[in-house]
Amino acid sequence: MQLKTINKLCCPFDKSDLDLQVLAKDTEQNIIEGILTCTSCQRKYPIVYGVPIMAPDEYRQMQLEQPIVEKWKLEYDLVDVKLLP
Questions:
Q1: Predicted TM-score (pTM) of this structure
Q2: DSSP H or E segment with residue 51
Q3: pLDDT tens for residues 19-70?
Q4: Which of 12, 75, 21 is nearest to 3 (CA)?
Q5: d(Cα 1, Cα 58) in Å, to the nearest integer?
Q6: Residue 62 DSSP one-character state
């Protein structure tokens, strides 16, 4: 995901702006792994292989997203990342 793409995204739940936490970039400075956080509702959306996973709550597959977040906690020394508020 290119960094300029973040300005075009919003939270699918409440349409608020998102904050970006970059975990990994490629050699061209594209975001490979990261976390988008809604400034209003605090929902978190992972960026996996450069793709933001931003489905509404009822379509999210937490059993697929959570193992990625658990790996990031160990790899990037993150604390208590909860995807849903």
A1: 0.83
A2: strand 51-52
A3: 999 999 999 999 999 999 999 999 999 999 999 999 888 888 888 888 888 8
A4: 21
A5: 24
A6: H
What the block records as the tokens of 15 is 């349409």
Determine contact, residues 44/35, Cβ cutoff 8 Å: yes
CA distance 66 to 30: 23
Residues 6+ apart with CB under 8 A from 10: 16, 17, 18
Cα separation, 70 vs 74, whole angstroms: 7
**Helix residue ranges per DSSP H, 43-85:** 62-76
Angstrom distance (rounded) from CA 34 to CA 21: 5
